[in-house]
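The following block was generated as part of the benchmark described in Methods. Ligand: EPU.
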Amino acid sequence: MAQHTTLGVGGRIGLYVEPATVDGMIEAVRALGSAGLGYRVLGGGSNILVPDGELPFAVLSPARLTRVTRDGERLTAWAGASFPGFVRGAREAGLAGVSGLIGIPGQVGGAVRMNAGGKYGWFWDVIESAEVITRAGETRTITKAEAQPKYRDGNLGDAIVLAANVVLTPGKRDELYAHEQQVLREKHSSQPLTQRSAGCIFKNPPGPKSAGRLIEESGMKGKAVGAARVSERHGNFIVNEGGASYAQVLELIAWTRNTVHERCGVELELEVDVWRST
Ligand code: EPU
């Protein structure tokens, strides 16, 4: 699994399922369910922390379902489509609404599930509905009004995302490109983008100070457990300096959270999805 995550941490799984078609995906969900096999759904692996060792679950990936179709200002993107590719594709099609989401890694499915976003908006701002498969293997369309997505949470429970139906507006390609370049410049100046990480570890808490700011003020920047280090560049990133273990990352997360609580009185909530081995 280390190869499937941007942090580069994770052990071995016994079964990896990557269906080539939507029907195959539905069939896989039904088969895994009726076999009683525990499984996790993998997106781009850019927002997860996976345990080491022999893992007692299977992994289902929509990585081969990469199609994006267009009908005027509407786009339907399947879960395995690259999220950065989707953003660039919208710009090339002269469609505005997602250029501020450039620089977010991963796949469309994960971005729907997590309501990926940042300073310039969230994915669900432009999503009209999501196509999902329930764990029982039934397909459903969930509208934005039904889902009521929140900050960093598409609010879809344990449903598996199949596709996003997105509505954009006409835009000028060169203006969209210029906006993307500005967002990327900002990210490069404030985030450790050349190092292995899982992006922001904690959600920003309510209140005036971001998680990164609180971590910096609590003196945790640069602190390390083994090869896992709190980034010097951005306090809310933990970087893997080479061979970091799950236990090291978890210990550093707990140390950071406790220190911020003691020194700033704020309880930070995890943003990264920590997979447990049970
Ligand atoms: N700051 C510090 N020290 C730090 C980091 C940040 O003082 O080490 C300060 C900054 O100077 C700024 C404020 O905290 O005044 C906010 O920082 P920044 O602009 O870097 O944004 P953020 O709130 O830390 C959010 C998202 C990011 C997203 C950026 C840009 C969350 C948890 N994080 O970061 O998302 O890329 O905005 O849009 O909402 C992610 O989800 O993985 C992620 C990186």
